[in-house]
Design a protein that fits this description.
DUF6765; 42% helix; two-stranded antiparallel ribbon; globular
Length: 348
Amino acid sequence: MDVEFHYYMTYLVAAAAGYPPADALKIAYASQYVDDNKFQFDIDKGQASAYQNYISQTMDILKPKDRLMRIYPIFHFVPGEPMSEACMRLDGCLHMLNTTPGNQNASELLRAAIQTDDLQRIGVATHAFADTWAHQNFVGYFDAFNAMNGPLEKLSPNIGHADAGHLPDLPTAVWQDPRMVSGQVDNRQRFLEAAEAVMTMFMGRIDPAMSPQEASRRLAAMRLELNQAMGKRDDQNVMSDERIERYVALGEKPFFGGQAIPRYDPELWLDMAVNEEVRGLKDRWMGQNLEFLGREIPVVADIYTWRDPGSRQTTDWWRFQEAVKAHQDMAWAMLRTGNMRFMSMQRL
């Protein structure tokens, strides 16, 4: 999924579930920032207030690196139930790391996050949970299980949905997965199902006494409005800006919090928490290394310092990074004793 679901739709779902707009905004920002948290920072290096974050995405999902394999099964391709009916393939293959929609692992991660009332952690877990719909039937690891058989697909690495390009993440695309018994994929239905599942989880925390009838009414109203805002089929994603305009306007309705959704700025939380002294090229734009003739060339590192070291732990950026670490710890513990129990950890 891209920013349309992880930020704009997640905000609308959280607000419709009953979170106040300010809380819905933090959940939505954290959800999308999982994809934009691609750079490791050394802040106040050598000081008592020194801090280093974990990344939750690579610079380019279509060009993954071996050393970052810990990222995918935890934040983007949470393994599920490999015997699920939705996993039926033409070749009959199964995989213990296969992603299945709304699976038990992803559900437990989101349920645990919701119980903490930590908005950033809820956002991180929401990202992982929602991605199980878009990324179903792929595994977050280099494996032939992900491979599609076209000539162009053979050029891309068999990790996640690299062979399918960005198609699985586009809200209203319809595409073919040649590996599956039911090969036609309608992303609209997958995204709407994910929205309903996320909202159900949210409502269970906000109002545990809500009647099934009221919950069904609210879910139906949310789905109707979201479906209309998504508009018509768009396989090339050329109408993304138009859809975002409709999501922003939808936020102004009382049912969705009564406020227009602020445009997403991937640098907002970091800039509010951290000073940056750029030396040469801006690291967070260029990455930690440049590539020339197939070789990585280190760039001159920028210098990062806390704007206010004394209040650093109250910033949204710091809280998000701690949420990433907490989510990772829980996910690894869960997978090591579950889906990965009989697999060689050296491969992972």
